[in-house]
TrEMBL record:
Domain DUF2231: 14-132
Protein's UniProt name: DUF2231 domain-containing protein
Signal peptide: none
Keyword Acyltransferase: no
TM region positions: 12-29, 49-70, 82-102, 114-136
Length: 142
């Protein structure tokens, strides 16, 4: 049985890129948890904290998105995973921005749309991190 391997290994994520990518997931996940706490307790501070977590996730997400687009442009060969990664980051950032606008509304007016958007954005951030760490890494042998 013959084993066919790609002689060109894929590049690993730069450590700073990986750090920024890993930072988006807990920020967006924290926003979901704060929205759940707000929905069950009606304490306005949970909604405020969720807004700050979303803003932090957007800042890190913008840096990661810019880095992914530059990597996509500079790539010598186009990889579907790189394109999917960049598009997933773009969707995460765009929906995260919409989520920030929804959370900017007056307290309870952000519910339940804010909670649903936070959950979607957290899932997208998790999927982007999964592709980033396990789909675009330097491949060796088997």
């Amino acid at each position: 049985m013959a084993v066919i391997a790609d002689p060109r290994p894929r590049r690993a994520l730069h450590p700073l890129h990986a750090f920024l990518l890993a930072g988006t997931v807990p920020l967006f996940l924290g926003a979901v948890l704060n929205d759940i706490a707000y929905a069950s307790s009606y304490q306005i501070q949970w909604a405020n904290f969720a807004s700050w977590l979303i803003a932090g996730g957007l800042v890190l997400g913008a840096c990661v998105l810019a880095w992914a687009v530059v990597d996509l442009i500079r790539a010598d060969r186009r990889d579907r995973r790189q394109l999917a990664y960049a598009l997933l980051l773009l969707a995460t950032w765009a929906l995260g921005f919409i989520n920030a606008l929804v959370h900017a509304r007056d307290a309870w007016a952000s519910m339940p749309a804010g909670l649903v958007l936070s959950a979607i954005v957290a899932a997208l951030a998790g999927a982007a991190a999964w592709i980033g760490f396990f789909g675009i890494r330097a491949g060796g042998g088997a």
